[in-house]
Design a protein that fits this description.
It is a single chain. The protein is α+β, with helices and mostly antiparallel strands and 176 residues long. The chain has a single domain, classed as protein yfey like domain (protein yfey like fold). The protein is 19% helix and 30% strand. The strands form two sheets. An eight-stranded antiparallel sheet has the order 3-4-5-6-11-10-9-8, with no helix packed on it. A three-stranded mixed sheet has the order 2-1-7, with no helix packed on it. A hairpin with a 4-residue loop joins strand 9 and strand 10.
Length: 176
């Protein structure tokens, strides 16, 4: 019995360590901060695939990060023009692997966001509704179709208009 316990305790610590790398906090997405350099970003995701967009150019507008196998994890947007002390403007999260400390991820629904965070406002874009969460310095994109709104409808959106089951498209964490 003791041998089994000695075998499983280290595995528990390894699992906890792996989960820590996917936490979303204000100014931090799985260890990515505004001060993360390009070199550090490539080291953090050395087991994954990073695509520079646009490819083959002297400048980069974004770094799309994919897990081996093709799952889109994140997109990192650098500051333009590049500031020497800050490399990253924002991180856009697509993978449900990344969760806030309160358990909200891209697999969550509006009800989860509303129950765990204070919503500052909801703004329309052409295809989404952006939910502003000051506690995380985040915007959470919801598909307008889930709200029963037309894509090009730019009228203000209240919390009451958003169904509890509206799905999250992506989460942006801003580093400003």
């Amino acid at each position: 019995m003791k041998k089994l316990l000695l075998l499983f305790v280290p595995l528990l610590f390894i699992q906890c360590k792996q989960n820590d790398t996917a936490i979303i906090k204000k100014n931090d997405v799985g260890g990515i901060t505004k001060n993360t350099t390009k070199e550090q970003l490539f080291k953090l995701f050395e087991e994954d695939s990073i695509v520079k967009i646009p490819e083959g150019k002297n400048y980069v507008n974004e770094y799309a990060i994919f897990k081996k196998g093709g799952e889109h994890l994140l997109t990192v947007y650098p500051l333009i023009p590049k500031d020497s002390t800050q490399f990253i403007e924002r991180v856009q999260i697509f993978s449900p692997k990344y969760k806030t400390e309160k358990g909200v991820s891209t697999s969550s629904v509006f009800k989860d966001v509303n129950a765990n965070y204070t919503i500052k406002k909801i703004d329309p874009t052409f295809t989404s509704a952006l939910v502003y969460i000051d506690e995380l310095n985040a915007t959470i994109a919801l598909n307008k179709k889930d709200l029963g709104l037309k894509e090009l409808d730019m009228n203000m959106i209240s919390k009451d208009q958003v169904p509890d089951q509206a799905k999250i498209k992506y989460i942006d964490i801003w580093f400003n």
